[in-house]
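Lines hold sequence, tokenised fold; shown next:
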Amino acid sequence: MKIELPPIPDAERTPLVEALLALIDAQQQRIGHLEETVGKLSDEIALLKGEKPRPKIAPSRLETPPPKSPPAPGDKRPGSQKRSKNASFLTAIEVAVPFPNPPAGSISNGYEEYFVQELLVHGEITRYLRERIVTPDGQTLLAPLPADVLPGCHFGPILQGYVLYQYHQCNVTQPLLLEQLREFGIDISAGQIDRILTRNKDGFHQEKAELLQAGLQTASYVGVDDTTARHDGKNGYATAIGNDLFAYFESTDCKSRLNFLSVLRGPGTGYAINDVALAYWRRQKLPQKLIELLSSGPCLFADEGAWQARLQELGITAGRHVLIATEGALLGVVIEQGASPDLVILSDGAPQFDILVHASCWVHAERPLARMVPYTEAHRAQIEQLREQIWELYKDLKAYRDKPDCAAKATLEARFDALVNQKTNYASIGAVLKEMRVHKADLLRVLERTEVPLHNNGTESIIRGYVKTRKISGGTRSEAGRRCRDTFASLKKTCRKLGVSFWAYLSDRVRGLGQIPRLAELIRKKAQELTVGQEQAASPAAVGGGAAE
């Protein structure tokens, strides 16, 4: 709904006119919100009918790449450089092809290479005949199976790795996997596929837990986000945590700060009281008397039962006090496990993620303006003017992040203040500016921590694969399936970030070879390499070209 109001001169903008304009603005925002709700419901109805929903809005222009200049004469398009197509071939078979019926007197002049790649897809059954012997003392012994046969399983490691890869990497559903394998000649049932996907995966679960600890211990920042994750016919949530070196998923029944801190803690059960916990309690305005009680006794608690018993012993029973105390103790144990107290949590601005040092995403801060439906030409002009100002400041913040300049910090802060403190005739625009003003420190975190991105696109990118799986499979039904979904999503994304082939990783782990290092070891190694590289880049010799002679 769009209302065209005639331009109103400043001389005629009486208090009554301003009040009426503000009322119209508020009504238009309410109408816009209702229209958005109706649109979402219409999309759901269309999907239930098998129809297509309405198209999504275009992404924010904050991260739109600049237009590329045409290549200079003689320059090649990036990625078009010639490469050797057979440099990586591992030739296993060589077949000499002689010339058929050569003319009399012909002489061989060698051979010319011609490579043909092929993928062999077929079922293979091996029948092992295990010798049974009877010892002189009457014992019956059975010959052991070869080392490459998985104990207690009638499906080989390649087949098991293939099932895991197809399901978790290619999003092939279990019914399609069953049909596919039977067409390949494999005698397998739906229950056996489910067991391959969910049973005896303790080694994978342990490696997932290790990569979270290694990721947090080596990180200066992590991006976080959440999305819906249906389980057992009920709606739940999946929390994603990661950066350039790792990705971690955990699905739960709710989303809250308490839940997020539990996810950060990992599979552990402990609680801890330390300086970080005390600082959190003071920030959340827990009464000083309760802080003194909590800090005048044991500081480590093995599990929730011990923690709750301590709260009962101290007489802390009010719901809000119990919640804040528990959140602080969870944050304390995250620090005890090796995370830095200065760890930056980069998020879309959701309040449950506002712990430790928080940074907000500029794309999400600007998004309300992009979604705003102008109802007058003046309203549209103000929206576009404000977005242009945000884009210009964002561009300069990116330049600062790439090349920090202490002299530019004060200027950028002043420009931000001028941006968010400007007056507007529209309550909807004023609300966006107020929200940015409240989160000034989070939006300008890059001025102090240049390693932190200005947006949360990286985390949204790693969560996209999880969303795709949810749309295809719908959800999980068993706790084992839910846990495996989170574990293999974490391992798959982490392998990609570390440059490890997920197929090679699965093959190595299913066979129990251990030739590919633990992902936690690779995370620590790469983090150390990055730290050394940054120190060398920032050293006086690197900056100034070496010491004076």
